Structure formats: C-alpha cells, structure tokens
Amino acid sequence: MDLTINGVTRSVEAEADTPLLWVIRDELGLTGTKYGCGAAQCGACTVLVDGQPTRSCVTPVESIAGLPVTTIEAIGQDPVGRRVVEAWVAAQVPQCGYCQSGQVMAATALLQQTPQPTEEDIAAAMSNLCRCGTYNAIAAAVRQAAAQG
C-alpha cells in the first residue's frame, strides 16, 4: 500500500486494518507520534490526515490511503505549524512532554482552520489530555501563535 507521509509517498506492507500509528512508528520509524491510550481518548497519537486532526491509534491504515498525512516530524515545514512550535517553546509548555506532539498537531489544525480562534474554539479543539496539567500554558501558546499569524 502506498501512503503519503510528510509529503513523501512510501510503500508499506501492512494489513488493511493495522492502526496508522503502528505503520508510522514501526514501519516508517517516525517515533514522534506517541501511543497513549489506544482508544482515541488521550490524543498523544494525533496526526493530520488531509489537514484534519486524527487519532492514529484507531485509524485503519487502509482508510487514509491516498490522503496526505503529516506527523510531528514535518510540522515545522508548515508556516502555521512552525508558529505553533515557536509559541510552544516561548510559553515553555512542556513538562514531561509526552503529549506535546499530539497537542502541537491539534493546535496546528485549529489555527489552519480558524486563524483567530475564540477561547471557546481553543477549548473545543484542544481536547487532548495532558497528565501534567499544562492546559493554561497550552491555551496561551495557541493564543500566541494565533496573534503572530
């Protein structure tokens, strides 16, 4: 099966129902996308599929064939993604950092779709879990990235 990951089309050997997360991590060696809960609840595995935040732990690889997938490894190539990463660093968001790749992906998708989000937009879009509780810093970084856009 051919997949377009981070702008590069790659052939992978995987069963159609294999979760995208395992193809990204195990087949392609892109380990920035994390496994968290395996039930699409925590968001650590969030990637962008055709610009939409997608929980890769429950997304069958077959369902995304032909659609572009962006992982954290390439998010800095996108101008919005680069702004989000810069805001994340400036706001010193990460503590343990485990959820951060999924958080950055969700924030990038939000700002690509809604360049000037309201507080309600941010709260709705940033539904990924953070065990360290950095939600205030996450929201501040999203606001900062939006202001720089």
UniProtKB/TrEMBL annotation:
<keyword id="KW-0408">Iron</keyword>
<dbReference type="GO" id="GO:0046872">
    <property type="term" value="F:metal ion binding"/>
</dbReference>
<dbReference type="InterPro" id="IPR001041">
    <property type="entry name" value="2Fe-2S_ferredoxin-type"/>
</dbReference>
<dbReference type="GO" id="GO:0047121">
    <property type="term" value="F:isoquinoline 1-oxidoreductase activity"/>
</dbReference>
<dbReference type="InterPro" id="IPR006058">
    <property type="entry name" value="2Fe2S_fd_BS"/>
</dbReference>
<keyword id="KW-0001">2Fe-2S</keyword>
<dbReference type="GO" id="GO:0051537">
    <property type="term" value="F:2 iron, 2 sulfur cluster binding"/>
</dbReference>
<keyword id="KW-0411">Iron-sulfur</keyword>
<dbReference type="Pfam" id="PF01799">
    <property type="entry name" value="Fer2_2"/>
</dbReference>
<dbReference type="Pfam" id="PF00111">
    <property type="entry name" value="Fer2"/>
</dbReference>
<protein>
    <submittedName>
        <fullName>2Fe-2S iron-sulfur cluster-binding domain protein</fullName>
        <ecNumber>1.3.99.16</ecNumber>
    </submittedName>
</protein>
<keyword id="KW-0560">Oxidoreductase</keyword>
<dbReference type="InterPro" id="IPR036010">
    <property type="entry name" value="2Fe-2S_ferredoxin-like_sf"/>
</dbReference>
<dbReference type="InterPro" id="IPR036884">
    <property type="entry name" value="2Fe-2S-bd_dom_sf"/>
</dbReference>
<dbReference type="InterPro" id="IPR002888">
    <property type="entry name" value="2Fe-2S-bd"/>
</dbReference>
<keyword id="KW-0479">Metal-binding</keyword>
<dbReference type="InterPro" id="IPR051452">
    <property type="entry name" value="Diverse_Oxidoreductases"/>
</dbReference>
<feature type="domain" description="2Fe-2S ferredoxin-type">
    <location>
        <begin position="1"/>
        <end position="75"/>
    </location>
</feature>
<dbReference type="InterPro" id="IPR012675">
    <property type="entry name" value="Beta-grasp_dom_sf"/>
</dbReference>
